[in-house]
Amino acid sequence: MSNRQTKTDVILIGAGIMSATLGSLLKELVPDWEITVLERRGNAGEESSNEWNNAGTGHSSLCELNYTVEKPDGSIDISKAIKVNEEYQVSKQFWSYLVNSNLIRNPRDFIVPVPHMSFVQGEQDVTFLKKRFASLSNNPLFQGMEFSDDPGKLKQWIPLMMKDRTFDKPIAATRIESGTDVNFGALTRILFDHLKSKNVNIKFKQNVDDIKRASDGSWELKVRNVDSGTVEHHAAKFVFIGGGGGSLHLLQKSGIPEGKGIGGFPVSGLFMVCQKPDVVAQHRAKVYGQAAIGAPPMSVPHLDTRFIDKKESLFFGPFAGFSPKFLKFGSMFDLVTSIKMHNLVTMMAAGVKNIPLTTYLIKQVMLSKDKRMEALREFVPNANSDDWDLVVAGQRVQIIKDTAAGKGTLQFGTEVISAADGSIAALLGASPGASTAVSVMLEIIKKCFPQHIKAWEPKIKEMIPSFGVSLLNNPELIQEIHTSTSQTLGLADKKPANPKNQKKRMLKEA
Ligand SMILES: Cc1cc2nc3c(=O)[nH]c(=O)nc-3n(C[C@H](O)[C@H](O)[C@H](O)COP(=O)(O)OP(=O)(O)OC[C@H]3O[C@@H](n4cnc5c(N)ncnc54)[C@H](O)[C@@H]3O)c2cc1C
């Protein structure tokens, strides 16, 4: 064991999209601050941020039905859809800034335009979709959304999904051209390459075992090399716990009172992936359906065109399941060791309340491939089992805490937990996830560096022109941002929607 202690201004734990984003923002705001990144894996973006571990949807509520709920009076609540959409506009502005500043060379390496669609079957869901469309389509954030219940039109939009379909119930879909597929793994690696070029000290294979407050208020981290077992100590004035599923344990180790009483519920994921060119060529969209009754929102089924390593494929899923691990490369003891005296009652209450959900998830894990094919055939009626492989996705650790709704309530969003003095912050939860990384990291900056915000604001506004402004109340700004980010990120795609032609062109460009 070494007693060497390295001191830096900032330590980022974890090399996922969140640390990549926070590091990139801070490097622009205060280039001379020293930043160290500590990551247990051998590379950046190997956990949830990896392109094979998430669905790559640029979440902006263009297609996700769970962001618009029907109220008891029958009207549609679109407040969450607006929030998520505005947050995604923030991400697109920051990514555009990085492209315009030559810090990202080619946006096609991580973002591609792919229409976003919602698809429903059955009278009740068709009525819901019509109402959802009516509520969103007049809103400037959702401009360009189309609705159709005409099978002929749907055949043009989603030929693969309409082939060999029997029309025993009504169907309908909405479609919007301005959707995106984002390779968050590639983006994470691009951002870490950029940080490395700015002298950020990125240390792989380093597991943060412990975090303790020093007498001067800074933080001391005990860090173990996962190969050799040697231990180092690192200290910093500010620590960001960006460990994804690993964040809860680290937050607990910090001992800050804000982290007490919080627990985690891990949900695993599986995708079915098709890479057969003649099947892939028949579909170009991200098509989201309705979650099954009893299913958690993160298991809403969708059929997505994906661009990974300049190759196009189709992903279907995710099938949610239960695993006690908090990280894909985590330990079977993660759930048990996260139960402490301070969250025991909360966890027990959550355990009792969520028996049906846990049973559902366990049943999902045990589904045979044939059963999964049945779910896929709701989307692709003639899907051939030989064309689709199962791929294990990332883990999502949902927050459990006591809320006004009761003890041990399961939360499906993300939450920033920070110390009162702003010296340490953690990100818990996983939805809407990577798409909103820039907004969430700006929230951390505001919470943890209030003394600097005034001085940093001009630079933040240069990077994110809509910072501090409600886009919804500024339709012209929405238009401006939409046009400029689409141009910079190569999303200004106005070609007709023939999947085969468009796909050939996009692959050539990619
Ligand atoms: C199945 C699935 C589908 C998803 N789909 C989407 C989607 O379509 N769109 C979207 O926007 N988001 C999606 N998400 C969510 C998104 O992937 C996550 O929100 C995002 O990747 C989280 O990034 P992160 O940096 O917080 O965590 P991660 O990418 O998990 O990175 C955390 C890092 O911390 C490291 N680490 C953990 N503990 C330690 C430790 N003690 N010491 C050192 N290092 C440590 C890990 O090894 C890891 O590299 C999806 C997630 C899943 C699982």
TrEMBL record:
Q: Which pathway, per its entry? A: Carbohydrate metabolism; tricarboxylic acid cycle; oxaloacetate from (S)-malate (quinone route): step 1/1
Checking Pfam families in the record gives: Mqo (PF06039)
Basic residues composition bias: residue spans:
501-510
Query: In the record, what terms sit under GO molecular function?
Result: L-malate dehydrogenase (quinone) activity
Chain intervals for the UniProt region annotation (Disordered): 488-510
Q: Which cofactor does it need?
A: FAD
E.C. numbers? 1.1.5.4
Q: SUPFAM superfamilies from the entry?
A: FAD/NAD(P)-binding domain (SSF51905)
Q: Does Heme appear among the keywords?
A: no
Q: Which UniProt keywords apply?
A: FAD, Flavoprotein, Oxidoreductase, Tricarboxylic acid cycle
Catalytic activities: (S)-malate + a quinone = a quinol + oxaloacetate
The first-level EC class reads oxidoreductase
* HAMAP family, sorted: MQO (MF_00212)
| Sequence similarity | Belongs to the MQO family.
The protein's name: Probable malate:quinone oxidoreductase
List the source organism.
Paenibacillus eucommiae
Which lineage do the record's taxonomy fields give for this organism?
Bacteria, Bacillati, Bacillota, Bacilli, Bacillales
The gene is mqo
